[in-house]
Amino acid sequence: MASMGELERAVMTVLWDHPDGVTAQEIRAELPGPQPAVTTVLTVLNRLTGKHLVDRDESARAHRYFATGTREDFLSRLMADALGQADDRAAVLARFVGSMDASDAEQLRRLTRRRRS
Amino acid sequence: MTARWVEAAALVVLAWILAGPVSARFAHARWGARFPVGALVVWQAVGLAGGLAVLTGELTIAAGSTARPWRSAVGGLFTGTGGVAYAIGVALFAVSLLWLLGVLVLSFARAARLRAEHRALVRLLSAPADVSDVAVDVIDTDVPFAYSVPGRSSRVVMSKATTALLTDAQLAAVVAHERAHLTQRHSLLVQPFVAWQRSLPMLAAAAAARWRVEQLVEMVCDDAAVRAAGADAVSGALAVLLPDGVVSDERIDRLSTVALSWAWRAVIVAAAVVLVVLPPLVLVALPF
After folding, report:
1. Cβ separation A97–B243 shorter than 8 A
2. How do residues B240-278 score in pLDDT, each as one tens digit?
3. Which of B55, B128, B174, B281 is in the most buried spot, having the most CB atoms within 10 Å?
4. What is the pLDDT of residues A41-64, one digit of tens each?
5. What is d(CA A54, CA A40) in angstroms, rounded to the nearest whole number?
6. What is the ipTM of this complex?
7. Do residues A74 and B121 touch, judged by C-beta distance below 8 A?
8. Contact yes or no for B69/B56 (Cβ under 8 A)
9. Long-range contacts, stretch B228-235, CB < 8 angstroms, 24+ apart
10. Cα B267 vs. chain centroid, distance in angstroms?
């Protein structure tokens, strides 16, 4: 049985591959390795929704789930924290070097843009 | 009758001197780089003493004078014989205490929430790896960085670029540095200064204090990294991870300077203790 952290990562990977949204059933079918129960997938989805990483469309009978951003969006958020762009968010981390000047910020934007294309 | 106001004013001025000019000057004291632990102790003392001076001053208004023990301030609460000055003093004291504690509690709560959010991001975007025998979360990106996320499920995080660019000794230094942040609970030392600066964003000295405390904490961790991997490894890692164009940094330069003598260290720590203990001691223990 995979840990909750691994399951969350695997579910997010499936969601990132389907920008138009997927149902829990479809996610389960795409998960690598031994497939967990649909209820387990739903539990993971609920946790991710609670953390605002996932959105839910409840208009159809089988709810559809979306990631609230692409993998690159999440990565830029993490790096903005890690490299000290958003100062008050970065204040909660202990960074090996704290400061980042404008050229680094520009390089960061360039890098994430390149990865997206 | 007027003595209480003079004494209260003196204590408030003391707090203002500590929060303003003393903080601004101390933020640029060079000896901090040679004894960062001592400088951190002094910063905690300056913060504590400032807060205690304000609270003591307000209790003085209520009690009449520092020469009258604080018990009379508390006593007035039950006998109701304090008069106007008593009411003003107690009200100011209550508001200050609530404000100081409230700012701190909210700041810690906010930090805990942001950390939890960040940990969730790290979990999704990282792969676990062993770096220098420590479990590290590695993020797949070509921008070098390394940091730690404090808190109950603390972790060390670095990018793939960091693991690729640094030598084994430099990686050991970075890991030792981040572990020192976590095991020494540095977030507890830094957070009050973050809270103070955020609650008074117009106060330049608060920003200077926060900046310096964050720097000193890094220096303490650099020293832990030197013990683990040597000074060359630390300066090499800093050279890679500092932003482009930074050639001379206090953190690199200090690795080749001599630490402060034991005598000076003792004096500094003693001064910090006196600074904290004096205002409440005067209030509680003065024998008249």
Report:
1. yes
2. 887 665 656 788 889 988 888 999 999 999 999 998 887
3. B174
4. 999 999 999 888 899 998 888 899
5. 16
6. 0.75
7. yes
8. no
9. B228/B172, B228/B173, B228/B175, B228/B176, B229/B169, B229/B170, B229/B172, B229/B173, B229/B176, B230/B169, B230/B173, B231/B255, B231/B256, B232/B169, B233/B167, B233/B169, B233/B170, B233/B172, B233/B173, B234/B170, B234/B173, B234/B177
10. 20
Which of B118, B174, B245 lies closest to A92 in CB terms?
A: B118
The answer to whether residue B77 scores a pLDDT higher than 70 is: no
Q: Does B24 touch chain A (CB under 8 A)?
A: no
Pairing between strand A54-57 and B134-139? Answer: unpaired
Chain A partners within 8 Å of B148 (Cβ): 93-94
Q: Which residues of A touch B242 (CB under 8 A)?
A: 97
Across chain A, which distance is largest between two alpha carbons, in Å? 50
pTM score, two decimals? 0.84
Q: Say if CB B191 and CB B111 are below 8 A apart.
A: yes
Report CB contact under 8 Å: B120, A53: yes
Which residue's structure tokens are 């106007």?
Answer: B84
Lowest mean pLDDT among A107-116, B84-93, B259-268: A107-116
- Cβ-based neighbour number of residue B202 at 10 Å: 6
